[in-house]
Every structure is written in structure tokens, then in C-alpha cells.
Amino acid sequence: MIKKIAWNTFKNTGDINSFLEYKQIENLEKISEIKNTELIDKISKPQGKTNTGLIDEIGKIQQITNIKLENK
Q: CB-based contacts of 6: which residues, under 8 Å, 6+ apart?
């Protein structure tokens, strides 16, 4: 859509700068879409730790804490 607006503006005004500005806007929109998609993919994927892994980690922390308390 922006490309069409840019082209029509250029045809009507003969100003190449307007066309180039619209093209930059179009490119920024494409980049934004790509970044949003990448962010959604990153959020959707597990971060390497499952619930089981977290439970195991909590258990280890509790054991370390108990050992330190017993040594006091």
C-alpha cells in the first residue's frame, strides 16, 4: 500500500525524495514485523529449563541452605 502511495506521490509531484521517504517507511515496517515475529518466537520457546528442572534446582538450594543451617 505504501509503495503505491509513494509511486503516486512521485508521479504527481515529480519529487523523488517523497518516493524515497515512503520507501524508507515501508522498509521500517517490514523490519518491525520481522523483529516482532522473532520476539514472539523467542518468548514462545522454552528457555532451557522445564518445570522439573526448576523443581530440582529449588531442591538443591534447599539442601544447601539446610546444610549451612546445620553447621551453625
A: 18, 19, 21, 22, 23, 26
CA-based radius of gyration for the chain: 28
Question: 6 with 22: CB under 8 angstroms?
Answer: yes
Q: State the 10-residue block means of pLDDT for the chain, 72 residues long.
A: 78 84 86 85 66 70 65 52
pTM more than 0.70: no
- C-alpha to C-alpha distance for 58 and 51, rounded to whole angstroms: 10
Cα dist from 51 to 29, 55, 57, 67, whole Å: 37, 6, 10, 24
